[in-house]
Amino acid sequence: MKYESLAIHGGRKDKADIQGVNYPLYLSSTFVQDKLDDFSEFMYSRSNNPTRNNVEVLSAQLEGAKYGLAMSSGMAATALAFSLLKPGEKVLINSNVYGGTWTYVSKVFDERNIDYEIVTNFNTYDFEQADEKTTTIFIETPSNPLLDVTDIQGVSKKAKEKGMRVIVDNTFMTSYLQKPLELGADIVVYSATKYYAGHSDIIAGLVMVNDDAIYDELKFHQKILGAILSPFDSFLLTRGIKTLPVRMDRHLENTMQVAHYFQDSGAVEKVYYTGLKIHEGYEIQRKQAKGDGAVLSVALKKEYDYAIFCNELKLFDLAVSLGGVESLVCHPASMTHESYAKELQEQIGITENLLRFSVGIENIDDLLMDIQQALKKAKK
Ligand SMILES: Cc1ncc(COP(=O)(O)O)c(C=O)c1O
User: Fold this and answer.
1) Largest CB tally within 10 Å, which of 20, 127, 159, 306?
2) Whole-angstrom distance, CA of residue 80 vs CA of residue 217
3) Is 13 a catalytic residue?
4) What is the CATH number of domain 3-242?
């Protein structure tokens, strides 16, 4: 089955007498055993719940992965992948990742005696010089908010030769556009809050893996740490996934137009979008992904007041997050990446005039008109 059909018809098949076209919502914390010592697939919902398992199976099918794990948030998914790390180990991480991930790395790793290092560009990184205790690399590609592209296949190969595990945060792409496991990654994590759920109504995370031993350890931690996705949110996530491909197609169309609009507007110093030929990662993105996603950032020229611009936008809501049907704008330096120290923000390129857009699926003319009128008001 092709992706679009699988998104609608994949997942578990209900065994009940009444068969709805949707897999049911099992709001039950515990399940009856037939008799003592007779354990069925479902016993207690923290370990396994049918509605959660349905979205785990469905998302794994879409990824082409052996296993999927549904978590209570994208951060819980990342934390689950990081739960494999042992004291004394070291992690390499790309320079601009989601602020929460950075907070975890820069605060929690320290408490757990885990070392880390920021890698500015994994594509040119010399793995020969990596510290011996480095066991793991964490890649977000395209990165948040600067849309840097990492060559997953090339970098995974080099990391694997050094015995390192590769984790990819694939939130911006989803499995519809990019499949990191097929490119050599070991674990894929998602904030499913974003495109998978698609309607800005739930917080959810997904973890994808092929290796049996890694899965066993992750499954154990999912159950014991307990940050599972609730049945209700699993149901909503399944519903969101059914329309993921069509939403994504429209997101991509709109974003390309918004990127070109900004580029031609004369109002920006730089547009950060992998779909533009001038983007440094343009060729790698063609090689490893089916599209460019719907997040783009722009650095407004000094002649434009970025605060007035944000405040004057009518259709782009000023809000953190991304991946919903509605368009959003945010100011990374103060909203999503405020956990990076100011000097680090500047060093990385998260400047005061940088704005990140999550382009929704509204009518493109309305979106462009909104940008046009807000730019006019923001001109000094
Ligand atoms: C790329 C990326 N990864 C992870 C997360 C964390 O996800 P959640 O907010 O669902 O915990 C986010 C949230 O914005 C994100 O953008």
Assistant:
1) 159
2) 10
3) no
4) 3.40.640.10
